[in-house]
Sequence to fold (391 residues):
Amino acid sequence: MTEDFPLTGNWNYPTNVRFGAGRIGELAKCCKNLGMTRPLLVTDPGLADRDIVKDAAAANTADGLPTSVFSDIKPNPVGKNISDGLRAFHEGGHDGVIAFGGGSAMDAGKTIAFMAGQKRPLWDFEDFGDNWKRAETDAIAPIVAVPTTSGTGSEVGRATVVINEDTETKKILFHPRMMPELVICDPVLVTGLPPHLTAATGMDALAHCLEAFSVNGFHPMADGIALEGLRLIHHWLAKAVDDGNDLEARAHMMAAAAMGATAFQKGLGAIHSLSHPVGVLYDSHHGLTNAVFMPYVLDFNRIAIEDKMEMLARFIGLEDPSFEAIMGWILDLRERFDIAKTPAELGVTEDRLDDISEMAAKDPTAPTNPVPAGVKEMRQILDSAMEGRVG
Fold:
C-alpha cells in the first residue's frame, strides 16, 4: 500500500516535516537525530493499546531507544494530565518526548516536554505579552510529533491548549521551542480513524483555515496558505470521510491540517472563542464544537468578510462566487456529516449562556475576530446558534 506513493517529501516549513506513507519507520532515526536516548511516547488512551503505538514503541526499543508510553490524558487535556506526565517523564529518566496522536496527545506531549525542566508553574507561561520569555529555554526537552488525525495541526504549532481546572478556562501556552523539531506525517496512520472523527477533525482544519483567512491584518503568506488549505479541504475531506483507506485523500487532509495551524499565526476568531468555553464546561470534541458554531459566526462576521468569501468561493471552484455559496458549502458539510446543528445538541444549557458569553469574550482568540465581539456580541451569536438561526 505504501510503495510508489507520489505524495512524499521532506519539508522545512514551518519545521522539519517528513511526509509520506510508511515514514513512521523513521521514528527511531528522528529521535536519535535530536539526541534522545530514552523517549517518552505521549498518546491518548484510545491509541495506547493499538498496534500503531505498540509497534512504534517496540521498533524504537529494538533500535536501542527504550520507549515508555504515557496515556493518562483527557480529550481536552487538563493541568493534572501535565503534572502526571511530568512525573512519568522524570521517574522514567526520559530525555525527550514523542507526541503521538490527535490534538490532545499533541498538546499534552508538547507541554510535558516544555515543562520538563521549568521551575515556574505551568500557568506562568500563558500566552500573554512576553510571558514566554520566563521559560528556561535550555530546559525544554526535544519533541518529535506524529499526528494520527488531520485537524488541529498542533504538530507544526508553537502553542498548546490546556484546561486550568481551578478556573474552568482553556489556557493557551506559547513558546517558540514548543514547535516540534521533527514531524512525521504518515497518512497510513490516519486510515484507522472512523468516519465521524475524520469529519470532526476535518472541520477543525476547516475552521483554522477559514478564520485565519477571515481575520483582519496583513499577512499574505498566511492568507495564501489558508486559501490552499481550504481548497484541499473542499476537494478531499468528503472523500476521506467516505473512504478512510483513500491514502491520497488522507494525505491531502493531513497537509491541510498542518496548513491551518501554520496560517492561524495570523489569528483566529469567535468560532474558537465560543468553542473553547463549551469544550471546558461540557468536554465536547473541539473540532465538532467548531463545526457547530461555524455558520453562526460566519453570518455574524458577514459585513467584514463578504469580499473575502467571494474570493474564496472563486478559488475553490464554487459555481456561484458569493458569501452565500460558502455558507451553503459549510451547511452542506454539516448535513452530510450529520453534525449537530446547535450547541444544545452538545449539551449546552440555557443557564450557562451568560457564563459562556463572558468566557468567550475573554478568550485570547476574541480580539482578532473580524467584527469586534464583546460579551453582548458573543451572546448574540450564541442565541442564534441555540435557535439554529442563520441570517
Notes: The mean pLDDT is 96.
